[in-house]
Amino acid sequence: MKASKLLLPIFTLFLVLFAFSCDRAEDDEQPVDLNDQTRNSGLVARYAVNGNNLSLLRSGPAATGFFNQARQNEFWDFFTNLIPVEARSVMKEMELFADTEDGTAAYVSAIDQNDLSVWEMGHNLDFVWDRNNQFVPGETAYTSIHEVAHLLTLDHTQVNVTNGGCNNFFTGEGCSTAASYINQFYNNFWSDIFEENQRIREDDFDGYYQFYQKYRSRFVSEYAATNPGEDIAESFATYVMGDPPTGTSIAAQKVRFFDDFPELVTLKNQIKANINFDVNLGNIQGERSKRFTSQTEAKPKF
User: Splitting the chain (302 residues) into consecutive groups of 10 residues, what average pLDDT does each group show?
Assistant: First the structure.
């Protein structure tokens, strides 16, 4: 759902139809290289994607300076080395952008709302490199896995484009099939609280946080409490990057949910085998939680 222009972190809930957004919070500090204005100037580049290959469609104002071709290639190499090509076969375009104030760390969106076999993915490179201009592999991997989870749960094999007559979970893009990942996830974990969630206004950040606090044992993160689509993506990223849960909470059940699908078990093992950097999921989610909390506290009550 422009999974609307991740890493959640500004928890800017762009719950836009036909787009899943994952926003990342940012404080007032600026990147270290203050003289390099291209780090906060919007579009870096848009590419056509064919497997592991990119073809430039458009170059933006932030394509020079810090986010030059070498760093664009560095990100793409990281992404393609992490995520097996089969898991992103519907990804046909990629947008790289740079904007700390936008709050969006990544997104996915159907290129044509009537064709869920063709998607674009966007990544905010200002959240791939930290303020000391160091590449951040842990959160970049978490973000990438989260976005790929959207592709896996929202594409044409899982959701039928329709405007009515849906007896299963309606994702925004269309009606999920009975056997789809997201419909089963919804039936198992959301059917009793979905109406309450839907009563929260889309701009009521505190309302979503209060919903999370009320049901926190059900969710792996604050952002997961936004809606079933973000929940399944957050749960899958936790499933891949974390250790198997041992508890009996609903949050733990959500992580174990993916074990029922051999193809997702295989994908998890493939991605884990590609991780050649230290992962501390607690630190990743802890930092995300602090950013989220600071943003909700800063927002006025509606």
Answer: 41 37 37 39 93 97 92 98 98 93 84 97 93 94 97 98 89 96 99 97 88 97 93 98 95 99 99 95 75 52 28
Which pTM does this prediction carry?
0.86
Question: In the numeric block, which tokens belong to residue 72?
Answer: 């664009």
- Positive or negative, the CA dihedral 207, 208, 212, 218 is positive
Cα 205 to Cα 201: distance, rounded to the nearest angstrom = 8
Contact yes or no for 11/277 (Cβ under 8 A): no
Beta carbons of 224 and 230 less than 8 angstroms apart: yes
- 3-class DSSP assignment, residue 22: strand
| Residue carrying the six token digits 């790289």 | 96
Residue 65 Rama label (left phi>0; alpha psi -120 to 50; beta): left
CA distance 249 to 149: 22
